[in-house]
Amino acid sequence: MFPYFDMLNGPTYVTLVKDFWVRAEVYDVEAALDEEDKAMIRNPSLRGKTRQEMGLKSFRHTEIRSTVMGIPVTITEQVIAKACRVAPTGRFLWNITGKHPLMSSYTSVVLKGDSATKLVNIDNNHRMLLKFLT
Amino acid sequence: MVSFNKINLPRYIMQHLCWAIKEGIRSKRKQIPCGRLLSEIFTQGKILEILRRNNLDSDNFLRTRTGKIINGKTLQNMKIIKKFSPNEKDLKESTAPTKLMKDFPSILQERNHELLSKLVADYAKESSIRMDTEAPAAAAKVPLQVRRKRTASDAGSEASGAQTKKSRKDKSEASTTDNTSAPIPKRKRGKGEAPPINSLERLAEAREERAKRMKAFKEKYETSDFVMTPKEAKKGTEAD
Predict the structure, then answer these.
(1) Assembly ipTM
(2) How close B239 gets to chain A, by Cα (Å)?
């Protein structure tokens, strides 16, 4: 993880970041399906056919598409992994509910078994991790 | 982290960026996350190199900033240590761009350098940025005319989603039809060639079909998300 923290100590180009952000669009499964729907609306005979047969590019992975100073750019998970200098492997959990087994682990490990534990009372290591994340 | 297992950091960052973009379109969220990471991607992705060729790489123009460093002062403020004594050897904020990686995946959709330079020049012209080759710093004096921030109701913004694009397309279509005096009927989802969804049954059917396609799509193209087993959850609980 040290190369990642080394990377964080560097310049931020506000103009480029803002220019990228105002035009950013997410190309995910939903966007790909919308693309297929539009193709089917234009030509109903394409219903049930593959993306290639519809004349669309095959969907590989979620992308963020935008332009920076007029240059079209695409950001993927691989690009982020390379920029962070970390491998794109490991565990990933998203949208977990309160009933998830992880939540009980969180309460017992981080909050010392009491969900009402205040931030100042949690372990220093966990406070530092929280500081890094925020 | 709670279960002391390695996490997929790039995927979390990607997911958070996607969420923030969608949230920015849906609501009035204005915060931009991962500014430093995006800047690093632009550096490694050779965007800066293209700007340098067009004399648009001055710090004033790019508005180069550095973030704060978490150091002993932070620990003192957090009451983790009592006294902080700074040293000359302490890490300092750096404005130097990182070295280019040889195996960095390309982020550019277009590889032709001449065309890219032309795109930047056109953009600078549109945004009234002065391209003075004799005095590169001159460009920095002219502020970049960043387009309006997008909002959910922003009909004129380019980044306000597919609906806006469609309406803009419709408008452009309408303007061309005025010139050619050959009216083209506007295409709408659920009308025209596609069978209209005019009943609740058909709506439910369409939703069901979409859900099936979504599931098949995810199975085909996306790796499955990690699901914690009870054994691993117990391991995490016992780790305390």
Answers:
(1) 0.88
(2) 7
